[in-house]
Write a structure and sequence with these properties.
With 145 residues, this protein is mainly α. The protein has 2 domains: 11-81; 83-145, no CATH class. The protein has 6 helices and no strands. Helix 5 (84-94) packs across helix 6. The protein is elongated and about 55 Å long.
Amino acid sequence: MPSEHKPGRPKVTDKSDVVSLLVSALRDGMTVRQACIQSGISHEAYYRRCRDDADFADKMYLAQQTVMIAARKNVIKAIKGGDLRASQWWLEKHEFAKQHEEPQQTAVPAPTDPVKGQALIDRFRAYEEEVLGLQRQNAQATIEP
């Protein structure tokens, strides 16, 4: 009768407490190496498990995205609150960067001219309305026969 468990030494990454520590550390924004140190495993064991176990890899990826999602929500909240610097950063990162061949490596300075800052916000709002308007039209077209 075949046994239910695999023969040989159990993997260190199979322990539920190790997985919990990894998830927690990654959700706190640690790098994979830092999370491995925190969890008491080698980064080689971590990457080997990611290669061999798609569910584990997905779980680790989702944990890593937690900080990015929170940061994105904060930036969007600041933009919606009228923060000119956040708005300028967002536009330069997402819209204007597409127009340049090389991405900018420097931080975006705070707008010194409020009129220019407001112009950036107005351009963003016009773009947003254009995109959302197109999305609304497409949504209505799919609803109506």
